[in-house]
Amino acid sequence: MGKVKTKNKFNDFLLTQGLKSTNQRELILEEFLCAGSHLSTEELYLRLRRKNPRIGYATVHRTLKLFAECGIAEQRHFGDGQARYEASDHDEHHDHLICVACGKIVEFEDPRIEELQVEVAGGHGFTIERHRLELYGCCSDCCQG
Amino acid sequence: MGKVKTKNKFNDFLLTQGLKSTNQRELILEEFLCAGSHLSTEELYLRLRRKNPRIGYATVHRTLKLFAECGIAEQRHFGDGQARYEASDHDEHHDHLICVACGKIVEFEDPRIEELQVEVAGGHGFTIERHRLELYGCCSDCCQG
DNA sequence: CCTCAATTGAAAACCGTTTTCAACTTAAAG
DNA sequence: CTTTAAGTTGAAAACGGTTTTCAATTGAGG
Lengths: 145, 145
Ligand SMILES: [Mn+2]
Ligand SMILES: [Mn+2]
Ligand SMILES: [Zn+2]
Ligand SMILES: [Zn+2]
Prior knowledge:
2 copies of one chain form a homodimer. By secondary structure, chain A is of the alpha+beta class.
């Protein structure tokens, strides 16, 4: 989804929910879409502070939750104790490879794994609602290779 | 691994690390092995309190970390914000199915998924060190079926 | 026993997250 | 334009699970 389309989706969301369009929300969305993916609230907050020192952490936090509620962002947890957010650019789901040495995050999608998950879950009488697959290891930049 | 063998492994660990065998550590290990799996620190603490009200939360916390360090327990995070521990009964790895309705946790292992993970990681130049796969959904007791 | 390092439990500190609340904006009404 | 009501903001406090602190206690070796 393009930047403009995302902004429109958020504005529509605000309208239908009886929420207001504010300068902060616009600034936060703009920075969220420009900055790298998988940023923590703190990281995004610090980036915003550089350009606009009057913005508050609580507002960044609340706005990111709005993004998630609206469907333009997704919250992630990679085990370092803090929530991270990424834009729901594409409608397709993906999983993550995380380098334990440099922190690099690579996204991937494998239909074969997805299918096996459904099969395994079904075998235990479960209907999958969502899943989390994270592969932690060493990337080629960090380990011999 | 049997209960006796686990206790021996822990005692060996204490010896080689210059740590002491204490009444609390024995009580906590016994309860940890008897009680159900995937318990949080708080849950184990509350169970221990019933039998021995003089035990402290901090000691349970520290002892569970010792168990993990020793290799007889593993820490898990299922997204409810608290750490859970399970005995490393078998040497073989397993993943989890979690019912979002009743909280039931089912363990599974699928070599085909494991293999595909290695393949996918390799394709991105990664060497997997560990992974986390959790399937969240509805179990047969909770959903129509 | 004695000694000394390890352990314990209560309480405080920690840390990311979430809420509170008075001041301020926004958007719609007058 | 005002005015008004409702939503928003940011600083600070509260929260909740985890971890540390520290004085008192305990365990193992001498
Ligand atoms: Mn991603
Ligand atoms: Mn398990
Ligand atoms: Zn790396
Ligand atoms: Zn269930």
